[in-house]
């Protein structure tokens, strides 16, 4: 399985900050229930409240592609167009996930 992480960074116009936050927040729930969605969240940068990051994790690349063809994705793209700076849109393919065993292995080498 190759999980894909989608990350969309948007900088809101000062006069539309709250409106954009509400609109992006409204997309989280519907995205989470789409087939193949593992996780979805909206982040707002502490040091720059105008900066938002919409992030979703997908079980497979095909799940993400299906999402990208949907009408709800069109809503996300229309919000991206409001960004006062060039938006950051990134897709990361995860081929391996490790957990605490990696921390233990690295820490044991320090001892």
Secondary structure topology:
Elements: E1 3-11, H1 17-32, E2 37-44, E3 51-58, H2 61-68, H3 71-80, E4 88-94, H4 100-110
Antiparallel strand pairs: 1-3, 1-4, 2-3
Helix pairs in contact: 1-3
Q: Could you describe the largest sheet, including whether it forms a barrel? A: 4 strands, antiparallel
Helix content: 40-55%
Number of helices: 4
Output the CATH class name.
Alpha Beta
Mean pLDDT: 95
Strand content: 25-35%
Count of domains: 1
End-to-end span in angstroms?
35 Å
Shape: globular
Q: Based on DSSP secondary structure assignment, what is the total number of beta strands?
A: 4
Instruction: Say what the CATH topology is.
Output: Alpha-Beta Plaits
Numbering strands along the chain, what is their spatial order in the largest sheet?
A: 2-3-1-4
- Calculate Rg over CA atoms: 17 Å
Give start-end ranges of low-pLDDT stretches: none
Structural class: alpha+beta
Could you spell the SSE succession in H and E letters? EHEEHHEH
Architecture (CATH level 2) name = 2-Layer Sandwich
């Amino acid at each position: 399985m190759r999980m894909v992480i989608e990350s969309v960074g948007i900088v809101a116009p000062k006069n539309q900050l709250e409106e954009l936050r509400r609109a992006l927040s409204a997309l989280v729930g519907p995205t989470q229930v789409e087939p193949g969605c593992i996780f979805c969240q909206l982040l707002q940068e502490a040091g720059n409240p105008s900066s938002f990051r919409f992030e979703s994790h997908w079980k497979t690349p095909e799940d993400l592609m299906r999402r990208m063809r949907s009408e709800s994705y069109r809503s996300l793209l229309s919000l991206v167009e409001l960004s006062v700076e060039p938006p950051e849109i990134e897709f990361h393919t995860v081929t391996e996930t490790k957990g605490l065993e990696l921390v233990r292995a690295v820490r044991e080498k320090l001892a």
